[in-house]
Amino acid sequence: MVFFLKGGDAAFKGWISGEVEKLGGDVTPETIHQILVDWAKFMVVNVSIQGHGSRNVAVVGHGNHCAGNPVENEQHLKDVNDTVELVRSWIPEDLRNEVNVVGIFADANQEGGWSVEKL
Fold it and tell me: In what order do the strands lie in the sheet with 56-62?
């Protein structure tokens, strides 16, 4: 998961410092992963949905030469769909009928542009 946060770096650094402190220095790849998932959940639920009233959330993935996750497109599609289900599980029950979570997959096409598909 990647979040492009405009001006959010300081907030993230402060938040993650507190999370690491809670762990008492016991930082493993698994705990770092969980911290990042918790941050994503905070940003989607607390900031976007509750703070800004967003009612549409997009999970976007891309294929072809993804340097961060070099797998076949089928795996990228599965990852996007799995993440859509995860994000849906974060939506507070009283808002589940109001918030739409969609998957989007972008892929380079032969013309040198991008094709975009709603999953």
Answer: 56-62, 100-108, 114-118
Percentage, residues of the chain above pLDDT 70 = 84
Q: Is the dihedral of CA 9, 13, 26, 40 positive or negative?
A: negative
CA–CA distance, 50 with 111 (Å, rounded to integer)? 40
Tell me the whole-structure pTM to 2 decimals. Answer: 0.76
SS (H, E, C) the chain: CCCCCCCCHHHHHHHHHHHHHHCCCCCCHHHHHHHHHHHHHHHHHHHHHHHCCCCEEEEEEECCCCCCCCCCHHHHHHHHHHHHHHHHHHCCHHHCCCCEEEEEEEEECCCCCEEEEEC
